[in-house]
Amino acid sequence: ATLVALAFGTLIALAAGLLLLRASPRTALEEGRRLLDSVGWAAILPQMLASLGAVFALAGVGDVVGDLSSSVIPAGNLAAAVIAFGLGMALFTMVMGNAFAAFPVMIAAIGLPVLIREHHASAAVICAIGMLAGFCGTLMTPMAANFNLVPAVLLELRDRYGVIRRQVPTALVLLVVNIAFIYLFAF
Question: What is the pTM assigned to this prediction?
Fold first, then answer.
């Protein structure tokens, strides 16, 4: 249903854009190709990183991270578990470059065993807000090249990392808010 709705939304937006701009469908195709040529290899980076996250999860990286975090998180301490999950999502996203890659690992490590099973958290809240915490990491890393480096190139900025520097304060505030939201709304 999600993909069908996305396809319908795309077609409606295309029709609205063509009507508003009085353009031909060929213009939309040519500009789409031009933009994809400008972005280049980074266009498929999110799909590749999500696949890498699935491979990491299947390889048991989540279990290893879970074992390491269990030695740091005091047993039964809900606040420490929530903070570890939120920070873990952001930090692992910074390393991987994409929250979709970090998600399977952090859910297997802390989300499912500690927050959902042990503390009976709402899986929907943990997953949704956990992804938002991961996206905070996306804002702070050059590994998320398609979000942070490509715009700098397209905008011809002198500072290659200027986009990241501007996003870090917002990302840190949002990370704290997301961790607080997990703590407040998941239990």
Answer: 0.74
Is 88 within 8 Å of 111 (Cβ atoms)?
no
10 Å CB burial of residue 155 (0-12, 13-18, 19+) is: exposed
Q: What average pLDDT does this structure show over 102-117?
A: 92
C-beta of residue 73 within 8 angstroms of C-beta of residue 52: no
Contacts of 154 (CB under 8 A, 6+ apart): 38, 39
Average pLDDT, the chain: 89
Run of H or E residues at 55: helix 45-58
Contacts of 37 (CB under 8 A, 6+ apart): none
**Ranges 16-20, 149-153, 158-162: which has the least confidence:** 149-153
- Mark residue 141 as left, alpha or beta (left: phi above 0; alpha: psi -120 to 50; beta: remaining): beta
State the DSSP code for 118: I
Residue 154 in tokens: 């397209």
